[in-house]
Amino acid sequence: MCDELTAADNERFLITRREFGAGAAAAGALALLPVPANAAEIKGRDVTITTPDGSCDAYFVAPAKGRHPAVIVWPDIFGLRPAFRQMADRLAQSGYAVLTVNPFYRSTRSPFVTPGQGFDDALRAKVTPWRALLTPDATRRDAAAFIGFVDKQPEVDTKRGIGTTGYCMGGPLVMLTAAASPARVRGAATFHGGGLAAEGLLVLVPTMKARFLIAIAENDDGRAPADKDKLRAAFDAAKLPAEIEVYKGTMHGWCPPDSQVYNADQANRAWDRLLATFKTL
Which residues form the domain of 60? Predict the structure, then answer.
């Protein structure tokens, strides 16, 4: 969850790292991601998707040859930016046609943050009204439009299922997407997602058909330790496969390579689990 308490946890962690000289060389700088073995040649392009609510700017990238399962990516609260383009490229190199969207397109185009910017008061004040427009109904409309877009792309194999990933506030959007189109969405993954155990989301689990990966930051788990158990109970009751794990030593936001609390080892382990989750699309 991108709230004041988690942000305060992260800031204390960063201060401690700086005091002991063990921090990254430049907190918030864009780290280089590993290139997959046998990486496919890829081609990416900026796209605009018409939705019932406007025009969404997005980034689409896929292997240069063939048709591949599609993946829809919901970024964190910092939006579509170079880090998420890099992550999309890496996923495309692994054999997927990837659409990474600007979830705030109703309010602004991307990118809207500067490199290394944290979740400070100014950003919070800017983003809060944008988030308010991203209601469950709005998300369902967006998901339908994004699925319709990818299914029309020549790089996409529509005989395969669709995957979706979400980071931070994108976690609930993944669950809403999986519930909105269970016939198409067959793989889903959330990383340090916020509010996943909300009752309004848990009641949707029986309507889903996707295999799930839920990767939880250790400090998020510390603030809401019962959430993982609620999620496990909901997925077990629905007989829906779900890998739910607290990643030790991680802070909220540990996966994107430009995060101030990026944890490369755990982010790469979570990435490996993502590829395993999507293997059956």
Answer: 4-16+43-278
